[in-house]
Batch of 2 targets.
Target 1
Amino acid sequence: MTLDGAQLAILANRFEGISRKMGNTLLRTGRSGVLNRAKDFSCCIVTRDCELLAAAESLPIHVLSGPDLMARAMQQFHPRLAAGDAFLHNSPYHGCSHPADHTILMPVIDDGVHHFTVLAKAHQADIGNSIPTTYHGTARDVYEEGALIFPAVKVQHGYEIVDDVVRMCQMRIRVPEQWYGDFLAMLGAARIGEREILSLGRELGWDRLHAFTEQWFDYSEGRMLAAIRKVPGGHATALSVHDPIPGTPADGVRVHAEVRVDPAAGYVDVDLRDNPDSMECGLNMSEACARTAASIGVFNSIDHTVPKNAGAFRRLRVHLREGCVVGIPRHPTSCSVATTNVADRITSAVQRAMSELGPGVGMAEVGCVLPPSTAVVSGVDPRTGKAFVNQLFLGATGGAGSPTQDCWLTMLHAGNGGMCYIDSVELDEVYQPIEIRSRHLVPDSEGAGQHRGAPSLFVEYAPVGCSIEVGFVVDGHINAPLGARGGLAAHGSEQHRRKASGELVPLPQSAQVRIDEGESIVCITCGGGGYGDPTERDPALVRHDVAEGIVTAARAASIYGVDIDGSTPVTTRRNG
Amino acid sequence: MRFSSDTGGTFTDLIVEHDSGELRMYKAPTTADDPVRGLLDALALAAGDHGEDVAAFIGRADMLIHGTTHAINAIITGRTARTALLTTAGHPDILVLREGGRTEPFDFTVAYPEPYVPRALTFEVPERVAAGGVVRRPLEEAGAVAIIEQLRAKEVQAVAVCLLWSILNPDHELRVGALLDEHLPGVPYTLSHRLNPVLREYRRASAAAIDASLKPLMAAYLGSLTQRLDEAGFRGRTLVLTSSGGMLDAAEVAAAPIHVINSGPSMAPIAGRRYAGLDGASANAIVADTGGTTFDVSLVRRGRIPLTKETWIGQPFRGHMTGFPSIDIKSVGAGGGSIAWVDDGGVLHVGPQSAGAAPGPACYAAGGTRATLTDACVVLGIVDPAYFLGGAMKLDIDAAREAVRVDVGEPLGLPTDDAAAAIVQVVTENMVQAIEDITVNQGIDPADSVLIGGGGAAGLNAAAIARRLGCPSVVIPEVGAALSAAGALMTDLSMEHHSTFFTTTEAFDLTAANAVLDDLSRRCRAFVDGPGRGSVSHTIDRVVEARYAHQVWELDLPLHVERFASATDVDGLVDDFHRLHEEIFAIRDPASPIELVGWKATVRCRLADRELGRLRAVDSSQQRSGTRRLYLAGTGAVDAAVHRFEAMDVGTVHAGPAIVESPFTTVVAEPGCRFHRTANGSLVLDVSAQAREVIR
C-alpha cells in the first residue's frame, strides 16, 4: 500500500493531533505545579516496533530517545499485553529519563493485536526520595537517592487501577494526594490517546496506519538526509565542563563530544565514549538522556523542519559506552539529575562542535541549571498547617545565540527547548509560604556575539511565617556558558543566603538548605553564550540593547565596538 | 431600522434590519487606510439599493452596531501610543519574561518577542503588597512622583499601572492613579485591578498595557466614527462589539478599548448559537468562519459560549497574550487564498502562506501564479468561474489548472484533478485539527454538536469537515456569509464584573461569598440603570471560577443562585463542578475539595425585542440552475445538480452530489449527503449516513 504526499500529510497531522490532545488534557487536569504551572511533561506515540512516531509540543529531553526504550522494556516484561493495561515506568535502567519522570505507557490493542503504544510522562513534585527533592545531586547511588523505581510496572488491568501500587506510593511519596491527582491525570491523558488511535485504526484500517508509519519514517529520513547535505562535512570535538560537586572529580564532569558529519554518506555520528566512568553522585546520564541530549545538539544545529521521529534518527548515530557518566548506567548508579545538568553539557558540547564545521551551523552553549529559582521547596505552610513540596519555576533565561537570531530568552535549559512555563509571582506566593522579593534581568551578563545570548536573571525569595527547605543543583558558576564561532561566554551562576543582617553568604552548588524567617535566598541564573564575533553585531541592535538596559554603554564600546554616547570604542569593529 | 456592520480583512459587511424584521445584506471593500470610509461606502450601497437618498436613509436608523479591527490592526502594525508601565519595585520584567512557553523547541530562526512595553519605559514603583493583601512596604509617594516626572520628560502618551496583589488591595494602584491625575493630567492611564482583576500579574500587566496603549488612538477613531456618521445624517446610538460577545456604547469603549480587540469575530458564535438551536436542534455547536485568509473556530457548549483569558495577538508565545476575557476563538491561517506546496520530501502542505486578496489565487489572473485552495475549487468544479461573487468577477480556470498541475500535480505524480482534490483534503484536515484543539480544551464532543458554517468559503468543505469530526449535520445560515454582522443584531449590551475571593468547599465561607455576590449584583444593577437604561429586559449570569485542590487552571462553573441561601446550595455547586470536570476532562475526583477563586457576573441588557428576521426574498427569475461537472476525491467526476440558495423551497429534501450557490457562497453536497432548506432560511446538510471514509 503506497500513500501519496497528501495522504501522508493528513495522517501525520492526525497522529500529531492525538499527541497534542493528550498533552492538552494533561495540562488542564494535573495537580502539581511542576505539571500544571510549568508544563514539565510530554505525551507521545510509538509504533508497535517501539519507534517514536509523534511527540507534538513535547519537551525534547523527554522524548527523542526513551519512549522507544521504555516501550521495549514494557514488551520484554509483559510479553502478553491486553487492552486496558497501563504501566508505570520511571526506571533509568530500563529507558526512562530519570526517576522523577513518572511515565504511563498504554498499549493500543484492537482485537488482541498490539498496534501502537501511547506515553504520558510528567515530572513529579515528589517521588519519595530520601530528601524532599526530585534532583538528588549528591546521592552516591540509587539507595541514597531513595526513589521508588518502577521498571514498567502494571498499574491498570482491564481498565481498572491496580491499587497495590497506589498504596505503596501513598506510603512513600510526600503530599500523596497531589501525586495521586497527577497519576490520574496521566492515566486520563494516555487513555484519550488510546481511544483516539483505536478509532483512527477502525476508521482507516490498521494496515493503512502501519503502511503510513513506514512511509512517514522514510520521508523523515529523506528530510534528514537533505538537512545533513546542507551542512559542511567534517569532524570536530568540543568540551563542556559541569562544575564539581561532591562525588565528581575536583575539576568537575568534563564532557567531550566528537561529532562527524558525512554529507556524502548522509550520516551524523556523535561519539560520547571518550568520557569518564560513572560517578558516585546523581549527575550520571540515563541511556535515554545521553542519546537524547546528543540528538538535541544535532537538531539544534540543522534545518529545524526535519520531523523528529525514528525515520530521521536512522541518520543520526550516537555512540555510548556502558558504565560511562554520559553513557549507559549500571544499576545502582544514581541518575537522579539526568535530564538537566550533565545532559545540557552534552548538548552544549555537540552544538559547539557542530558550529566548528562552518558558518551558519551549530549554536552556542545554553545556560546551565538548576538554580534556586527552579528549586524544589518544601515545608509546612503556616496558613493551612499542611505540608507542601513542589518545584518552583520562577525563571531561568539561558538562551544561546544561533546562526540567525539572538537567544530565545526563556530557554530554562537546553533539554527543555524553552517549552516550560514560568511561574507567576502571585501564584507562587499563594501556593507556597514565600515572598518573591525580586525578579529581573542583569545588565551586561549576556554572552556577547553577532547574535547574543541571554542575560542572567536575578531572583530573590524568602519564607513567610516559617522556615522552608530548598533543594537545588547548580551548574555554570565556574564553567559559565561558552560562546561559539567567536561569540563570548555569558555570566555564570551564583547563589547566596541573605542573612537577617543583610549579609550575603555563598551557598554550595548542590545543596539542600534550610532558610529561616528573616532570611532569603538570592540567585543569579546563567546567561547564554553568544554566536559569532560581537564586533560583527548590527550596531542598531547594540543600540537597542543599550536603550533597553540589557547592555551598558561602556560594554557596547568595549565588547561590541559601538560608540553610544561619546564613549570611545576600545575594540575595533569588523563590520559597520 | 438598525444597521450592523463588521469590518473584515477583505470586506466590510453590512446588514440592514428593517422594523418589519426584513434583512438586507451588503458587502463593500474594506478600506484599511480609513476604515470608516468602507462603512460609509456600504451604507451608500444600501441606500442605493433602497432607492433612497443616503442622508435620509441613514437618518431613519436608530442604531448602528459596529465591529472593528482598528484596535488589533494598530497593535499588529505598531501604531499604538508611546506607553509606559509602572510595576512593583523588584519586578520590572513582567512583560519581558511573560509566562514562558514556546511552540517549536528546535526552531531558532524566530526571534524572542519584544515586550509590549519596552524596558526603557518600565518603571519600578517603591511599594509592595504581600499575598493576602497586607502592605509589606508602604507606597513612597515621593518616589512615585519622581517616576511621573520621568514619564513627562520621556513624552509618554499613555500609562499602565500593574502592582503586585492589587486585586486584593488596590490602595497603591489607586493612589498612583490619583498622582497621575495630579502630576500628568491629560495622559490616559489604566489601572490593572480595575480593568482585569485576575490573579497572575503578567495577564493583568499585559491587559493594562494593551488597553492604555490603545486609548489615544481608539478615542480618536471612535470620535471620528461618531462625528462622520453624524455628518452623514445618522441620529441613532452607536454601539461597538466586544471581544466577549456583547456590545458597548462607543464612549465606554474609548475608556477601555481592550474590550474590542476581537470585535467582530466574537459575534460568529452568537449567531451560530441561534441557528444551532433553530435548525440543528442542538445546544452544542462548532462555529467555523472561513474567510479569504483565516479560519476561525468558536464553540457553544450547552447554550453557553466559552470564554478564555489566553487570547493571543499574533501567534501563541510569539505575540502578546491579552490576559483579558474574550470568546475562545481558535484562528489558523487557512482560507481560499492558502497556498499549496510540496516539500523536498514529496509531502503536500497547504498554507500557512496565503496569496491574500492581492495578488490572489492564480485564477484571479491578477499576478498570482501559485496554486491556492480557491484554484483547487475551480479545478474541481466547486466554484463556477463565471459566477464568482455573483458573477462580479470572472475567474481564469486555465490559470487555476496550470497552477495546480505545476505546483502539486507534477511533484506528487497525480493528475491535475486528483491534485486539486488532495489540496482540499489537506486543508480539510488542517481545519479539523484546529477544531479538535479547541474542542478538547473545552470538552465538547463533536458527535454531539452541529457544525455551523459561516464566511464565504465555508461551504467548500463544511460537509467534509463534519464527516471527519463525526458531526451529524451542518447548518449554513442564509446570513452565513456575514455571520458576525448577523450575530451583532442578536447580541446585547453587556458587561462582565469580576471579583477575586478565595474559599474552598472544605471550609466554605458563606457570609463572605455572599458579600462578593451581592457586590457583583449591585455593580450589574448599576449598569442596568446606567448604559442599560431603557432596555427591553436584562439578565445577570453568575459564574464561579473553580478547580480541584492543587489544580491551577479553573473552570467556569455557572451558578444557579444569586446568593447562597444555605449549605444545600453549596452542595449543589459541588455536584455541578464534578459533573462539569468530568464532561470536560473525562475524570472526576469526588474526594477532592473544590477551590473557588474568581467570581463573575455578566449583565446583559436586551435593546431590541424581536428575533432576527429573514433575508429579503429574491426574484426567482435570477435563478441559475442546471448541472455542473464536479470532481470529488474517491468518487471522481460526477454531474452535480446546481441549486440557487435563495430560491430553494423549504422542506424539500435533496440528495448529493449537488452544489448550492448564492452570490456570497458555494456549498458542496457530496454523494450520499442529504440536504434541505429550513423555514428559517438555513441550508441543512445531513452527513450522518455517509461512510466516514476520508482518505481515498
Note: Residues 470 and 513 of chain A are 5 Å apart (CA to CA).
Target 2
Amino acid sequence: MTIKWNQVARHFFMIIFSIIMAYPVLWWIGASLKSNSELSSPSLFPSVPQWSNFVDGWNSVPGHSFTDFYLNTFGLEFAVLIVTLISSTLVAFGFGRLDFPLKNFWFSLLMVTLMLPGQVLIIPQYAMFHQLGWVNTYLPFIVPHLLASGAGGTFFVFLLIQFVRGIPKELDESAKMDGCSWFGIYLRIVMPLTKPAIVTVMIFCFLWNWDDFLGHLLYINSVDKYTVGLALRMINDSTTGQQWGQLLAMSLVSILPATLVFMFLQKYFVEGIATTGIKG
Amino acid sequence: MNRSTAVAVKAAAGKKKRRSILSRWDAPIAGYLFILPWLLGFFGLTAYPMFLSLYYSFTDYTLMESINWVGLHNYERIFTADAKFLQSVKITFLYVLASVPLKLAAALFVALLLNKAMRGISAYRTAIYFPSLIGGSIAVSLLWRNIFGVDGIFNEVLSKFGIQGMGWITNPSTALWTLILLTVWQFGSSMVIFLAGLKQIPNDLYEASGVDGANRFVQFYKITLPMLSPTLYFNLIMGVINAFQMFTSAYVITNGGPMNSTYVYAMYLYERAFSRYQLGYSSALAWIMLIMIVIVAAIIAGTSKYWVFYETETGGRKRK
C-alpha cells in the first residue's frame, strides 16, 4: 500500500524531508571548519576553513593525542570482534544444527535474555569485575564477548542461529558419512555458508562497541586507556573556554569509521536489520 | 588430543555402542561443547549477577565496607522518602511515552511514502537511515548540544522565519524535548524494518479490496496495519525497553538538568551506583526499573491479541 500523492509532490516532500534530516550533519561538517566566532552564523560553510580545528583538536588532550585514543579503541574493537566471531558462531552452530538434551530449554533462556533490560546487570557485573581487579582494563569488554554476552552478544547469537537453521542439512549428511566431526562440519561447511550473517554480526558488533559509552565510562579510568568517546567527553568537560570548532571537528572524525563501514557494506545493513526485525 | 578429534572419537564410540541412553540426540556431548561459551556466559554474566543484584538490593553494600542485610529498608526508602526517584520515574515515562510513538509513527509514515519504486529511493533511504547509525554516539550528543544552545544554529534558522528562539537545552520545559527530538531523528532503522515488512504484503490483497470498492484509508486500516502488526509489535516492545534505559544523551547533553528536567532513571541509577557507590540502594532501584519494564511490556503484550494479527492463526488468508 502506498500513499497515493502524485509523483511530483512525493519527490518534493522527500527532498525537503531528506534535507531536514541531513541538515544537522551538513551543518556539522561546516561547523567543524569554523572559527569560534563564526559558529553562530547561519551560513553552512565558513568563509575561511579552519583546518587548524582538526589539528588543534587532535592534540587538545594534554599529554596525549587522538592517535593514542584511536589506537586504543581500534585495538579494543579488534579483540572484541575476534572473540565474538569465535564464540557466537560456535554457539549458533550448536543451537542451530545440533540436537542435545534440554536444548529447547536453553534456547528459551537465550530468548529471554535477548529481551532482558541490561540495566539490572550493570551493578553486579561491576562489583564482580571490581573484585576480580578488572576495572581499568579492557577485560570487562573482552571476556563477556568471549562468552557470547556483552554489548549485543545474545542478539548476534540469535541472528546467526536463524541463519544457520536455513542451511540445508543434507550438506552435513555427506560430510558425516565421510567421517567428518561436528567441528569439521562447523568449520568447513556451515561457517563458509554463513558468511553474510557473520559480516552483519561483525558490523553491528563494531558499531555497538564503538558507542558503548556507559561501558567505557564505567570501566576505563586512566586517560592513557581512554577510548575516543571518553576523550571527547574529556574535551567537552574542560572548562577552558569552549572550543566548539575543535570539539565538533574531533566528534566528526569519530563518526567516520561508522560512516565508512556503512558506505562500503550497505547491503549487509539493510538485510541484517530487515530479517531480524521481521523475525521478531 | 584436540577437541575435534575427541569429538570424533566420541561420536565413533557412540556409534559402536548399542542403544546408549544418549543415542536419542545426535550430538549430546558435542552440542554442549559448542554452546559452552554461552552457558558460561549465561550463568556467570546473567543469571548469577541477577541473583547477586537481588541480594544486594536487600543490603547496604557500598563496595568498600562490609555488607549488611537491611531487609526491605532500601525499597521503603525509595517509595516513601526519595524525591529524586519519583522525579526520574516521571521524566523517564514522559520520555518513553513521547519518543517511542513519535519515532514509530515517523518510521511508518515515511516507509509508506517510500514504498513505491521511485528514482533516488536509495538516496532518500540513506539520508534517513544515516542518523540512526551515528545517533547513539557521544559525538552526536555533543553536536546536538551545540545546535540547540542559545547561540546555536537552530535559533538562527528560527530567526530567519521571524521566530524568537531560546535556550532549548537550558530551559526546563524544553530540555527533554531536545532529547526526544534526538531519538525521533533516528527513526531510520525502524523505517527500514517497516519498508521490508511492507514489501511482504501481497499486492493482490490491495487489488482485490480495490475491486470491492475500498478506498485508501480503508485499505490502510484493514490491510496494511494488520499485515504489519507483528513488526509493529516487535518494534514497539523493543523500542520501549530501550527507551527506558536511555542514558548517553541525557548524560552528555544536559547532564540530567536543568533542574532535573532530563533526569532519566538511568542517570539516577548511575549517580547512586557509581558516584556514591551505594550499590545496595541502586540495586533496589535497578530491580524496580526491571519490574516497571516487565509490567509495561506485559500490558503491551496483553493488548496484543486485539490488534496483532499473525497470518498463521485463524486458518490464514483464504486463497481464492
Note: DSSP finds 15 helices and no strands in chain A.
